[in-house]
Amino acid sequence: MSVRDQLGGPAARGPLPGTGGPGGGLRETAAHFALLPLRFFLGFTFLYAGIDKYVDSAPFSDSMNTDQMETLLEFSRDSAAAGWLVDLALENPGLFGHGTAVVEMAVGAGLLLGLWTRLAAAAGALLALAFWLTVSWSTDPYYFGADLPLLAGFLTLLLAGSGPFALDTALSAHQARANRRMFG
Questions:
Q1: 19: Cβ–Cβ under 8 A, 6 or more apart, which residues?
Q2: Among candidates 18, 14, 39, which has minimal Cα distance to 165?
Q3: What digits encode the pLDDT tens for the residues 115-137?
Q4: N or C terminus of the chain with fewer C-beta within 10 Å?
Q5: How does DSSP assign 129-180, residue by residue?
């Protein structure tokens, strides 16, 4: 027993109400659910962005109008940090536009469902990084652009995983039960 415990310190009295301890508390509950707002925000945003490319009137709709896509890419090319990435997209803007939309929808659905969350977050992080290095690189000041905060959010999910209410959790629990049955 430490001197602090003997003198009646916090460990001797137990945790303060609502701060944790054996039964959990407000902090533990908040920490348990902390990733949900981020996962839902990024999931909805990217699912919406992918769908919007097909139903909105610009620049991707109407069979991914390649003229508008090329104009957008050429406009950002000179100020992009990764001009080679813009050049790569300009080689086939239709494929680039469709690919971006499909990946955005997959990332969004994966995050909303909590399915393959880390894979979805990695793909989202790569997209956000590509957008930042190409289209929004010249945003001044840099924190006015949305791509860096999106990148930070995706990296957080990549590191932390899905959190609660995720198919990943259910699949992991199912796999653990199957492994216990198989191996003893």
A1: 25, 26, 27
A2: 39
A3: 999 999 999 999 999 999 988 88
A4: C
A5: HHHHHHTSTT-SSGGGSSHHHHHHHHHHHHHH---SS-HHHHHHHHHHHHHH
